[in-house]
């Protein structure tokens, strides 16, 4: 294909002439050239979401010429002309005369067959899923080990000191994650890339599991689990981000939620390991071989991840951010089914990142400061912190770490307690699978708002079971409450928080934002692991369950008011969502119950203004709920 050729007749799409390729231009100049007021937050956010808006076809092609010459893709010039036209307004490609019928059929098939992706894409998602198994398995294995190591290490008594020491050992990885390793996410990603960060954090996690199996004192086990935490923090931050960055918008939620689905599988697998090894007898010079094998077995999925991570593509968005466009092009061609789709993603993402860099260059603040001083970023921090806090304070990991103890308190044997824990882990995993289809259909926020009331209800039911004097009745009610809780956790607070947090931050602060989000979740995870045994001892099991039941009711209100929906947006378009004012978002949330009542209880044929239109019509007298027109 010739690098220079005659372009078709240009058709004005609006806006005045401006060469966006001048990367030293300021946001003010770019915005003014396209009829955008950069001082208007909503309009500036639209420009950041799609810098191609309002550009004429002539301007667009001139920008493509500069782009392909600069990044070394001039042999694909005509392909990028098409990509730029589609990227400018992806929903209206049918009107583009420059596209052939075959090109349009490619774009139609993207919508018709959203699950039709490359083998490499699904292989990388599998690798990310195995990284989640590495996360979940050590979390549950310590549940079984809790039945054995405290007595061997002399901390198995009923005193407050012994109770806190057991909690301290169990919470050690999450203390390390919250206070230290989560903050390694940014430098590891910056220096090593997404794959490098995953490799080294997974390696630390695997070695930490082996180390824990070789310890002979509680404090030595505590240190080994601190080392395990070096792997948990960066990996839990990076894997969901990688999954989100390589995924098309239509299935991004389903792919990013694989983190929690396979974390739940790892939890289930950890219980299986506990059951397999619980009756292993001691050998000469080896005391506690059963719990040592439990802890050590968690290194197996880590080996699997480390062996394959460098055979999968690097994140195209990360490569573009490093100005490695040719490598990003190679990566996208492995991840996308057609060159046209790869070109669209490469060009639009490059333009959005260029615009973000322009904004960053105009700011004298560093990225950590920007995380808390720019309102768009601060709203993302607030929303991700709420959902990450919710994932822990709904009570799930208090059960995950101590379900065997809980079932023992309800009058079961060790074997029955472990089988009960296995049932809990299996339900948690199985019921996370429906979110694979619902998270991009109903949305992240909707799943949380639907499931949180049930989580509150079943926590109260499980807690009330401990008041039953009959042992079988007590066990039945506790198990019912815990299992139903796990069933509603699976499609809601299980997959949503990490998916939501991985996509709500702009690229410039994504690693820092995700590091903060995971620090929040692991901090409260550590608090639960440390103090839940003391809560049971001081408040009784019923009181501890009531505590979390009350928090689930509070969390419903927080999500309703402060967490906007993120489904179906590209990562760049979410800038517009999080530029929505807090007061307007709260008003939208407060209006939701009235809409639900009219639509689902009274069965009225009403329509609600979508959030994105609600945002853009802040200054208009537009009713939030309207009756649908009769057809």
Automatic annotation (TrEMBL):
Keyword Transmembrane: yes
GO cellular component annotations of the record: membrane
Keyword annotations of the record: Membrane, Transmembrane, Transmembrane helix, Transport
GO molecular function: transmembrane transporter activity
Ranges of Polar residues composition bias in the record: 27-42
Membrane topology, from the record: Multi-pass membrane protein
Domain Major facilitator superfamily (MFS) profile as annotated: residue spans: 124-567
The keyword Transmembrane helix is annotated on this UniProt entry: yes
Localization (cell): Membrane
SUPFAM superfamilies: MFS general substrate transporter
Record's compositionally biased regions (Basic and acidic residues): 1-10, 617-631
A single BP term in Gene Ontology: polyol transmembrane transport
Pfam families attached to this UniProt entry: Sugar_tr
Name of protein: Major facilitator superfamily (MFS) profile domain-containing protein
Annotated organism of origin: Rhodotorula taiwanensis
């Amino acid at each position: 294909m010739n690098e220079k050729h005659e372009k078709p007749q240009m058709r004005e799409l609006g806006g005045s002439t401006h060469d966006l390729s001048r990367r030293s231009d300021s946001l003010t100049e770019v915005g003014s050239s396209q009829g955008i007021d950069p001082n208007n937050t909503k309009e500036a956010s639209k420009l950041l979401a799609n810098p191609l808006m309002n550009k004429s076809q002539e301007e667009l092609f001139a920008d493509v010429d500069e782009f392909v010459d600069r990044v070394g893709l001039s042999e694909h010039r005509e392909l990028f002309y098409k990509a730029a036209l589609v990227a400018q307004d992806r929903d209206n490609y049918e009107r583009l005369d420059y596209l052939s019928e075959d090109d349009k059929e490619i774009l139609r098939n993207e919508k018709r067959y959203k699950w039709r992706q490359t083998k490499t894409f699904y292989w990388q998602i599998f690798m990310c899923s195995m990284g989640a198994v590495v996360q979940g398995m050590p979390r549950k294995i310590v549940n079984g080990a809790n039945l054995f190591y405290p007595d061997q290490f002399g901390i198995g008594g009923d005193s407050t000191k012994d109770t806190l020491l057991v909690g301290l050992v169990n919470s050690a990885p999450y203390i390390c994650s919250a206070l230290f390793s989560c903050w390694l996410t940014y430098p590891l990603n910056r220096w090593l890339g997404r794959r490098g960060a995953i490799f080294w954090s997974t390696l630390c996690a695997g070695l930490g599991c082996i180390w824990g199996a070789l310890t002979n004192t509680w404090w030595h086990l505590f240190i080994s689990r601190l080392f395990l935490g070096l792997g948990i923090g960066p990996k839990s931050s990076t894997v969901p981000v990688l999954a989100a960055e390589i995924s098309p918008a239509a299935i991004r939620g389903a792919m990013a939620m694989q983190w929690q689905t396979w974390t739940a599988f790892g939890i289930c697998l950890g219980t299986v390991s506990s059951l397999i090894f619980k009756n292993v007898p001691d050998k000469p010079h080896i005391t506690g071989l059963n719990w040592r094998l439990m802890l050590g077995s968690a290194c197996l999925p880590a080996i699997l991840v480390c062996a394959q991570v460098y055979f999968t593509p690097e994140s195209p968005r990360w490569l573009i951010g490093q100005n490695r466009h040719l490598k990003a092009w190679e990566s996208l061609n492995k991840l996308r089914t057609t060159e046209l789709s790869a070109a669209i993603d490469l060009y639009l993402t490059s333009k959005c990142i260029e615009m973000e860099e322009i904004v960053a260059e105009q700011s004298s603040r560093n990225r950590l400061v920007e995380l808390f001083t720019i309102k768009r970023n601060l709203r993302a921090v607030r929303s991700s912190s709420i959902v990450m806090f919710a994932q822990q304070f709904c009570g799930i990991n208090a059960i995950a770490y101590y379900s065997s103890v809980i079932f023992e308190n309800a009058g079961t044997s060790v074997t029955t307690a472990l089988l009960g824990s296995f049932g809990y882990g299996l339900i948690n995993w199985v019921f996370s699978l429906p979110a694979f289809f619902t998270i991009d259909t109903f949305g992240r926020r909707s799943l949380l708002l639907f499931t949180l009331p049930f989580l509150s209800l079943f926590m109260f039911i499980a807690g009330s079971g401990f008041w039953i004097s009959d042992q079988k009745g007590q066990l039945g009610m506790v198990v019912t409450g815990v299992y139903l809780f796990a069933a509603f956790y699976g499609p809601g607070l299980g997959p949503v928080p990490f998916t939501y947090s991985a996509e709500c931050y702009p690229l410039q602060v994504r690693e820092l934002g995700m590091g903060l989000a995971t620090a929040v979740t692991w901090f409260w995870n550590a608090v639960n692991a440390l103090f839940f045994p003391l809560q049971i001892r001081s408040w009784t099991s019923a009181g501890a369950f009531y505590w979390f039941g009350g928090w689930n009711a509070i969390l419903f209100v927080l999500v309703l008011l402060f967490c906007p929906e993120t489904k179906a947006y590209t990562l760049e378009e979410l800038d517009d969502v999080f530029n929505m004012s807090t007061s307007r978002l709260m008003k939208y949330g407060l209006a939701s119950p009235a809409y639900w009542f009219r639509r689902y209880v009274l069965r009225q044929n009403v329509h609600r203004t979508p959030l994105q239109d609600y945002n853009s019509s802040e200054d208009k007298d537009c009713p939030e709920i309207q009756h649908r027109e009769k057809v």
